[in-house]
Design a protein that fits this description.
Blueprint: H1 5-54, H2 56-102, H3 134-138, H4 144-154, H5 161-176, H6 178-191, H7 202-209, H8 219-239, H9 246-261, H10 263-279, H11 281-292, H12 300-304, H13 316-330, H14 336-345, H15 348-389, E1 397-398, E2 410-415, E3 428-432, E4 438-443, H16 449-465, E5 473-476, E6 480-484, H17 497-513, E7 520-524, H18 533-547, E8 552-558, H19 566-569, E9 573-578, E10 580-583, E11 586-589, E12 594-595, H20 603-609
Parallel strand pairs: 1-5, 4-8, 4-9, 6-7, 7-8
Antiparallel strand pairs: 2-3, 2-5, 9-12, 10-11
Helix pairs in contact: 1-2, 2-6, 4-15, 5-15, 6-11, 8-9, 9-14, 10-13, 11-13, 13-15
Length: 629
């Protein structure tokens, strides 16, 4: 039986409480064994000292026993400490889940800020990216690229039906795979616990691309191997009294000279190894989980994660473990003096460089596709997690326009704003029957016009990204979305608010004239509000005429009640409105969309309620509708 959002929140809270209790017990155990280590040292020293004075063999046994118990306590303390840390990370993950469900923005991880000067046709208008945005609410990725994948999907200007349906199928499958998603998030969170930012794979891909010489020249491995064999043989013959001491000393000098000759290679090797140890440590655990997870045979998830199902020698676990092992071996090269003599006796760096080059070649062949699959999986898990936290949301039905028949181009039932808190959220139905239709929305200030426009736009973005929408149902075809809701002026470029608005509206018309692949779906809030009443009315009238009946459809909100008469001139214009009520001196809104033009206005009511004057000596009588205020 499908659970409700409230039930899932309660389940998350219970999980947090259980995990917190387990973490507290682990920490107590860790502290207990930490004290046991101290006691093993102190008591072991005292008891051993006494027993050594009485009976030496017994004292030796006491020393060995103290060392063994210290080692045991240390091992237990580390195990319990590590377990407590893992539980702490898991609690953090579930607390973030609760924050996302409750829209507690202060406890939802941030995402990169959006550009306020962006020319994107709806990024700023619909709060797609940046703080308090749809991207921040959805994003559960631990990689920078996974987060960018999600943002790119939400900002898609020309949606692709096949891609949408493919993502929807994966999101539908992943939504039920709660254990898989949570375990993947846990592994990602634990392995990136010391990072202040998202994991960025750009440096790894650049490192793989810098491969002018994939393998060191063979002589750089052959020469030190020969020198090592000869030197060790001479030392053996010297020990047997066959060779004089000068022979191994001369050979040692030759080996040291070769080591000095290859010092530059050693410094480059250490830089490579240091980078590997830092960058690949996080990937090993994550990719290992994806490699060994028991996928359902024939599932889309198994198909997506197929790149991880390699032969053992070519798989991510084996490769990344090998790279880390070579990186640890290469750390000896950090001490130049020690490395000088180490490489004089053994072909240490030559062997590591040769093996590192071979492993790098395997990484070049496989790592990009592993990373690509991981990035896409993270973006898909973000959408699936959003669906899981909001079980009342639904996956929309997106179909090609030619397959709609007589059905509306867009029809949504109980459409809601996904960035508004569920408690008290008002939903509305919306429908666009034909191409060229214009929904003209009038209404009072604060009645819900702008919120409604964003509601439609945000749900279309979610639908085209392949995610769930805040609706009981949504059937739509493909549109190219464009908005003029939040226009930003530019001091640096010398744009006034009105000119910035004109530029945005011109972009919509220019795109329409450019014969876009899909019909334009426009959302325009308070058209031409940056100019005076007379010119605004003329400009609005002309602009709506230019849109009606064209390769587009959408909604326009306005305060100009004179524009409602356009429905008498153009059959494509449909009037809708939001309205307010004044009850016992207080303004009240129900945020419900109604058909027809708005019968009321509330600017003077708001002024009067806030104590501002609305009359002057010789002014006309107060309008009748204000008497109730």
């Amino acid at each position: 039986m499908k659970t409700t959002r409230t039930e899932r929140l309660a389940l998350l809270q219970r999980q947090i409480e259980r995990l917190e209790a387990r973490r507290a017990r682990r920490e107590l155990k860790s502290n207990y064994f930490a004290w046991q280590q101290v006691m093993a040292l102190l008591l072991g020293f005292v008891i051993s000292f006494v027993l050594l004075a009485i009976f030496r063999p017994l004292g030796v046994l006491a020393i060995l026993g103290a060392i063994a118990y210290f080692y045991y306590s240390r091992k237990q303390q580390v195990a319990y400490s590590d377990s407590a840390l893992k539980l702490k990370n898991l609690v953090q993950f579930y607390e973030t889940q609760v924050a996302r469900a409750r829209l507690d923005w202060e406890h939802i991880p941030s995402v990169p800020a959006r550009s306020e000067q962006s020319d994107h046709p709806f990024e700023n208008d619909l709060d797609i990216s940046g703080e308090y945005s749809l991207h921040q609410l959805l994003n559960t990725a631990f990689s920078h690229e996974g987060s960018l994948h999600l943002r790119k999907w939400l900002l898609q200007r020309e949606p692709d039906l096949e891609t949408i349906q493919h993502r929807q199928a994966l999101v539908r499958e992943l939504t039920t795979q709660t254990r898989f998603r949570h375990k993947l998030a846990f592994h990602s969170l634990y392995t990136t616990r010391y990072m202040s930012e998202l994991f960025d794979a750009k440096r790894i891909l650049l490192w793989l691309a810098q491969d002018d010489a994939p393998r060191p020249p063979r002589y750089k491995l052959f020469v030190p191997c020969v020198l090592t064999v000869i030197l060790l043989a001479s030392l053996l013959l010297y020990a047997l009294g066959i060779l004089p001491v000068m022979v191994p000393l001369v050979l040692l000098l030759v080996s040291v000279s070769w080591s000095l000759f290859t010092m530059r290679d050693r410094l480059a090797l250490f830089a490579d190894a240091s980078f590997i140890s830092q960058s690949f440590a996080q990937l090993g655990d994550i990719f290992g989980y994806l490699e060994h997870y028991p996928y359902q045979e024939g599932s889309r998830l198994q198909e997506l994660c197929a790149p991880f199902a390699q032969e053992k020698a070519q798989g991510p676990t084996h490769l990344l473990a090998r790279l880390r092992r070579l990186a640890r071996m290469a750390t000896f090269s950090q001490d130049q003096v020690g490395a000088l003599f180490l490489n004089a006796l053994l072909p240490w760096d030559a062997y590591i460089a040769d093996q590192l080059a071979l492993s790098k070649q395997v990484a070049i062949n496989n790592l990009p596709q592993w990373l690509s699959a991981w990035f896409e999986l993270e973006a898909l898990c973000s959408l699936a997690n959003f669906a899981y936290l909001n079980p009342e949301y639904t996956l929309p039905e997106v179909v090609a326009q030619e397959k709609l028949g007589n059905a509306p181009l867009l029809q949504g039932t109980a459409l809601g704003h996904p960035l508004l808190e569920p408690e008290g959220k008002v939903t509305n139905d919306v429908s666009f029957a034909r191409q060229g239709d214009v929904m003209l929305i009038t209404g009072s200030n604060m009645a819900g016009k702008s919120t409604f426009l964003r509601t439609v736009g945000l749900n279309l973005c979610l639908a085209y990204a392949g995610g769930p929408v805040n609706a009981a149902s949504l059937h739509t075809t493909l549109f190219e979305l464009c908005c003029c809701i939040r226009v930003v002026d530019s001091v640096t470029d010398g744009y006034s608010y009105f000119y910035a608005e004109v530029r945005r509206l011109r972009q919509i018309l220019s795109r329409l004239q450019g014969q876009p692949r899909y019909p334009l779906f426009f959302l325009i809030d308070e058209i031409f509000k940056g100019t005076n009443n007379r010119e605004r009315l003329i400009g609005s009238h002309a602009y709506i005429y230019a849109l009606a009946g064209q390769h587009c459809l959408g909604a326009i909100s306005t305060h100009d009640l004179e524009l409602v008469s356009l429905s008498d001139e153009l059959p494509q214009i449909y009037n809708y409105h939001f309205r307010e009520h004044v009850i016992k001196g207080k303004m009240s809104f129900d945020y419900c969309l109604r058909t027809g033009p708005c019968p009321t206005s509330n600017a003077l009511k708001i002024m009067r309620l806030e104590g501002l004057p609305i009359s002057w000596p010789g002014a006309p009588a107060v309008p009748a509708q204000l008497e109730e205020v």
